[in-house]
């Protein structure tokens, strides 16, 4: 990466204008750096006259959220662009189109989704997306099934997993999600109003035993090519469209980690709504979120079962009842990982705007306590979970408990 340097807006325009067939010849282009995530630069380049536009995403050699003291591999840009191509083949309407990848600049040029909104933002503003569960259920089922031993050649899968060895980004997850929240880490960000419950995590050895098992699963269970960071900030939506972005954390890991991420972020928003909406609006938004949590799993399961019936050729994986057994275990993993994801967004590094954006401290702390209690309960119950309805019920119960 000898030519690597962070681009200026002018350079982003120069590079974007070399892409054939998008902008008019000699067009005057405009550019804004719009990256508001934790890690990368994102340039929006447009041709005001025609309205055509494109996104250039460039990896920085450090974690932007912390600064240059936290170096980070640029190889994540390759991983992201390759994962996007695989996901585009498997779930074409559910990811942005990639136009080009320039390895020496760790730069991916892709479809501009400005006609969509980030799901986290939409939910914070109280919007409902009735087709989202079906879309994400399909995305999860197709990307997980067809990159796993169920749905792809098992030797090719081993070779493919080699292209997605992602040690530095996995280490972020191993530390930030599975370790820091349970110890007095300098990375942690804890609202003083919830210090008692945050500290209690550090001495809860039953909880930590479960987290150790889930962390070990994350380290060792290479079931499928995961997105690896599938929170609601990694999903663009409209009422009729869903696009999953940002798979730079992609690696071969446990399927429940991706499904749990989606459910955890819906549950975080559920807890946050108490500090945002009132009366009938609050009731309706929470009904929508609760139904969506169930529907995401049900849609996933339905698609996964049908892919298994039509595309799984492995004689033993087709053995009677094996799929039922696999999905039962996957549901349990999903509960556990959802719980870990909720807890890290409350006491670890990199919180979520759903909850941190609640200005009133009492309401914010109440939402944080509800999310923490939900996360703890999901982790503790995960080995006994049998239906997705239990996840919804835990989130409702723990939230009600804080709001009484
Ligand atoms: C240092 S990176 C912090 C977080 O941002 C990403 O979106 C991941 O969720 C990561 O854990
Ligand atoms: Mg991201």
Radius of gyration in whole Å, from Cα?
21 Å
Number of helices: 14
Bound molecules: 5-S-methyl-5-thio-alpha-D-ribofuranose, magnesium ion
General shape: globular
**Strand content bin:** 5-15%
Give a quick account of the main beta sheet: strands, pairing sense, barrel closure. Answer: 5 strands, antiparallel
Any key phrases for this structure?
single chain, 404 residues, alpha+beta, 5-stranded antiparallel beta sheet, 3-stranded antiparallel beta sheet, 14 helices, 13% strand, globular, binds 5-S-methyl-5-thio-alpha-D-ribofuranose, binds magnesium ion
Can you walk through the features of this model?
This protein is an alpha+beta fold and 404 residues long. It is built from 14 helices and twelve strands. A five-stranded antiparallel sheet has the order 1-2-3-7-6, sandwiched between helices. A three-stranded antiparallel sheet has the order 8-10-11. A hairpin with a 3-residue loop joins β4 (62-63) and β5 (67-71). α4 (132-146) packs parallel to α10 and α10 packs antiparallel against α14 (388-403). The longest helix has 33 residues, at 279-311. The protein is globular. The mean pLDDT is 97. The protein binds 5-S-methyl-5-thio-alpha-D-ribofuranose and magnesium ion. 5-S-methyl-5-thio-alpha-D-ribofuranose is lined by residues 38-39, 63, 65, 172, 176, 229, 349-350. Magnesium ion binds at residues 37, 229, 234, 246.
């Amino acid at each position: 990466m000898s030519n690597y340097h962070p681009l200026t807006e002018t350079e982003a325009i120069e590079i974007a204008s070399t892409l054939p067939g998008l902008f008019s010849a000699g067009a005057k282009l405009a550019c804004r750096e719009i990256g508001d995530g934790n890690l990368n630069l994102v340039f929006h380049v447009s041709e005001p006259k025609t309205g055509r536009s494109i996104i250039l995403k460039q990896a920085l050699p450090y974690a932007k959220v912390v600064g240059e003291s936290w170096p980070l591999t640029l190889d994540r840009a390759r991983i992201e662009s390759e994962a996007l191509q695989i996901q585009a083949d498997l779930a074409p309407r559910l990811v942005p189109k990639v136009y080009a990848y320039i390895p020496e600049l760790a730069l991916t040029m892709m479809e501009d989704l400005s006609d969509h909104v980030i799901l986290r933002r939409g939910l914070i503003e109280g919007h409902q997306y009735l087709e989202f569960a079906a879309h994400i259920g399909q995305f999860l089922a197709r990307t997980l099934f067809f990159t796993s031993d169920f749905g792809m050649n098992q030797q090719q899968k081993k070779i493919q997993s080699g292209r997605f060895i992602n040690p530095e980004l996995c280490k972020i997850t191993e530390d930030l999600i599975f370790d820091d929240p349970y110890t007095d880490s300098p990375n942690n960000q804890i609202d003083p109003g919830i210090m008692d419950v945050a500290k209690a995590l550090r001495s809860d050895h039953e909880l930590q035993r479960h987290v150790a098992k889930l962390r070990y699963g994350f380290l060792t269970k290479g079931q499928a090519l995961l997105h690896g960071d599938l929170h609601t900030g990694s999903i663009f939506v409209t009422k009729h469209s869903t696009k999953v972005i940002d798979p730079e954390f992609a690696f071969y890991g446990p399927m429940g980690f991706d499904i749990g991420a989606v459910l955890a972020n819906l549950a975080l928003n559920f807890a946050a709504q108490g500090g945002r909406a009132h009366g009938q609006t609050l009731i309706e938004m929470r009904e929508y979120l609760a139904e969506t949590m169930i529907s995401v799993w049900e849609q996933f399961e339905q698609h996964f079962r049908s892919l298994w019936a039509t595309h799984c050729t492995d004689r033993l994986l087709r053995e009677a009842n094996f799929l039922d057994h696999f999905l039962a275990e996957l549901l349990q993993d999903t509960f556990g990982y959802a719980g870990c994801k909720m807890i890290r967004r409350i006491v670890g590094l990199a919180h979520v705007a759903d909850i941190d954006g609640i200005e009133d401290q009492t309401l914010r702390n109440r939402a944080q306590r509800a999310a923490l209690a939900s996360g703890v309960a999901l982790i503790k119950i995960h080995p006994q979970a049998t239906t997705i309805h239990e996840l919804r019920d835990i989130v409702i119960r723990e939230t009600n408990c804080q709001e009484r």
